[in-house]
Amino acid sequence: MPDDLAPRIAVIGGGQLARMMAEPAAALGIPLRLLAEAAGVSAAQVIVDHEVGDHTVLADLERITVGCAAVTFDHEHVPTEHLRALEASGIAVRPGPDALVHAQDKGVMRAALARLGVPCPRNALVTDLAAVEAFGFPCVVKTTRGGYDGRGVWFLRSSADLDRAAEAFATAEANGVEILAEELVDFRRELSALVARSPSGQVAAWPVVASEQRDGVCREVIAPAPDLAEPLAIQAQQIAMRLAGELGVTGVLAVELFETNDGRVLVNELAMRPHNTGHWTQDGAITSQFENHLRAVLDLPLGAPDARAPWTVMVNILGGSDGTARLYDGYPHAMARDPRLRVHLYGKAMRPGRKVGHVNAYGDDLDDCLMRARHAAAWFAGDLGEESE
Amino acid sequence: MPDDLAPRIAVIGGGQLARMMAEPAAALGIPLRLLAEAAGVSAAQVIVDHEVGDHTVLADLERITVGCAAVTFDHEHVPTEHLRALEASGIAVRPGPDALVHAQDKGVMRAALARLGVPCPRNALVTDLAAVEAFGFPCVVKTTRGGYDGRGVWFLRSSADLDRAAEAFATAEANGVEILAEELVDFRRELSALVARSPSGQVAAWPVVASEQRDGVCREVIAPAPDLAEPLAIQAQQIAMRLAGELGVTGVLAVELFETNDGRVLVNELAMRPHNTGHWTQDGAITSQFENHLRAVLDLPLGAPDARAPWTVMVNILGGSDGTARLYDGYPHAMARDPRLRVHLYGKAMRPGRKVGHVNAYGDDLDDCLMRARHAAAWFAGDLGEESE
Description:
CATH topology of the largest domain in chain A: D-amino Acid Aminotransferase, Chain A, domain 1
Radius of gyration of chain A: 21 Å
Helix content of chain A: 25-40%
Number of domains of chain A: 3
CATH class of the largest domain in chain A: Alpha Beta
Oligomer: homodimer
Order of helices and strands of chain A: EHEEHEHEHHEHEEHEEEEEHEEHHEHEEH
CATH superfamily of the largest domain in chain A: ATP-grasp fold, B domain
Largest sheet of chain A: 9 strands, antiparallel
Structural class of chain A: alpha+beta
Mean pLDDT of chain A: 94
CATH architecture of the largest domain in chain A: 2-Layer Sandwich
């Protein structure tokens, strides 16, 4: 490899987020080195320099980061003590352990947001069923660590649902984590404010988007969020930019928010990596979240986050349950029907409910973009319900 | 690899064109398999499944294409008889040997264009100096095969330059090729009409661009060609679309043309692969030439070739001669100065005159795009002359 190329970045985790980092890495001439959880996983299909290893084993992390200028992540599951050990050995860990813990532990995150005065749903750490009753209903209880895509979350309408809380406590105890109770917010919709921050302190903020979650899984994103009041959009971006700075985030930070029916935004979750609500940026923004993540990790100046089209709609492709899903076999119809459609597949086999790709449709007319993206995603998923033709 | 992924495409040649196919291949979930001329070459850095081998050795071609649905190319140097052997073995060769020979052999190309009545510079195969004299001056003599980036081309102003023709004949004889004489066209500028054609016969035509060549090397492309008269633009596109069909091209066809000072277009060269004059499509068109090349190779419907911005300017990054060139080291300035700049590097070490990358700048104002792209390319090349700040 020529000497005048970029320093190498280690990426921990071989999922689709690492895979999608490979595209801008190739364009920018930035070599990646991947620690993959198994042979042939999504990112290992497209990153030449990869090894199979375990992100919970320090020796594996040390081996993959040798000779790399920085290490970043496909997921938030690397233990904090390992991140500290890597930092101590001189590698730039981005985001660093002190920032990342806020995306790993919801209890730590809520405490930090309270300290910073950032608006959140009312919440409290609870240790037993009596504490849940005292918190009040309806509420949602969550494990502080380890939950994602709807796992580790229980909704309690009333005390009649306390058996679910018991299940939550059992799960928490089995995994050595805590339980957080949060008010069930009466929200109009979910928003996401995505920013990238470099170690030097530059922040790029993409337009605030609306996201639709079903069963805890992101299904659809509209960029920008339609009819979002300008003050709320600015507040959401300011929260994300401020959190990125206060928590010392390096790379992409996604702040998922509730827009309440009474016109407020409340922070729901934080993610410190490229995020599903930012996949629209691949085709809809001047600089994608994946490129700006890499730039931030190397402390390079960030690319412009502006939208390239009035509207971009992202819809995830999820494996259907009836076995009629198709990926490559769906191309002839999807591509012929919509020559402007942008398809992103992850190299994953279809399984019911599994995210295997997404489509982006951009243009001047929101309804047209929605129709095109929804139709294509439903077509691939083999799930042509009432929302499509 | 899951069964519902795309069929595998073999790519012969590990240069930057193959490298840039890897980005849309990853997005579309299309696995590539690369025959690289050496370890660590441009495309071998980003295509996991690669082997080192020789594109002139049939056994190497056979080994790399085993299990692939189709084979395509980074360059036009694979011998015709090998392409026929691969076809006979059942693999789809795209473009096929009968088409590709028109990009390999300028004599065959000129004969085909004459047969089809496509406007060309006056030309003739010449076998000795007397034939060159009879053809007339000024003229240009070219080897029919093997020339590129200005090599294999000699300009003759008058009979005083006949020693150059002698050099041309010596080169041709040493390489077993012929010599073509062509009139020196009094052209206003060079244009390029780029199309992709699928085996089913669909053709996507990108806007006609203006390209600036220096010393036979493409330096700059403006999309679309400024102030190009609509009838000429249509004629150029029709020539490219017709040639793609008549010659049976599959994949990208670049038709380089002269726009004469008296308002005609004349075909100069053909290339049957993604082409330097199409690099602007990566950031400036809905579908890039690299993606549509892959789609065409697999006979999938083609993506829309429309421009996404009023203007896109591509400028190549060439290694300067004074040792002040920089690639990664140039990022802090280039990215901070222009957050909208799109950079594409090839993973190649700098050498004087070598193409090591390109930049794209798009926007509403042509002068602004020209200034941004020229400045960035000159900055990387270490060649900040009068055309930049």
